[in-house]
Design goal:
The protein is of the alpha+beta class. It has one domain (13-202): Pnp Oxidase, Chain A, CATH 2.30.110.10. 19% of the residues lie in helices and 36% in strands. It has helices at 20-29, 66-71, 114-128, 132-135, 141-146; strands at residues 16-17, 33-39, 42-48, 50-53, 56-62, 76-89, 97-108, 110-111, 147-153, 156-162, 180-183, 198-199, 202-203. Strands 1, 2, 3, 6, 7, 10 and 11 form a 7-stranded antiparallel sheet that branches. The protein has a 4-stranded antiparallel sheet with strand order 4-5-9-8. A two-stranded antiparallel sheet has the order 12-13. Strand 2 and strand 3 (42-48) form a beta hairpin. The two termini are 33 Å apart.
Amino acid sequence: MRPDKRIRITREPQRGRYDRETIDAILDEALLCHLGFEVDGQPYVIPTLHARVGDTVYVHGSAASRMLRQLAGGVRVCLTVTLFDGLVLARSVFNHSVNYRSVVLLGAARLVPDEEKLAALHALTEQLAPGRWEEARQPTAKELKATWILALPIEEASAKVRSGPPEDDPEDEHLPVWAGVVPVHLTAESSDYDWRRVHAGRVVGPKPPTTIES
């Protein structure tokens, strides 16, 4: 993916990633996204659910949602996700950091039509809990009518990734202060449900949702 000036990483540019493999993997692993938009000069950033299918990211909402009513007209939005991978503790406060993987996606969202809505809901369900679409009762016509979904094309996107140890200044390396990385991962409490996104207690990315199985 060729970066233009709107998505090009300018601070710590060596951390920028523009390949779809990296961008898709981060979108697929994240459970939540944040959607930024503007209404009458007032910016909003709303947390919501998402799922990627091929070159499209679906965003879930309600027909009563101000966000979806505003964005359905093709307003430009900014969608972001962040995966927090670890505390990076240096010998100086200034050089503390975190390890993370993030994506910023820009574009104009469109309202998903009725004939596409069921497939989009399938993807959103499978993103959260693989296999759940077949386990639970599927939406009724009334429930589908009450549900709005936005679709955002993956055309302008960049990822930013920080990994590795702290970067101490040479004059600080002698200080008697512990420095290193504290790994941080999303985990799930034990339950009676076999959540297929959990492996060895850690929440991992699912296989990318595709379409409803026939």
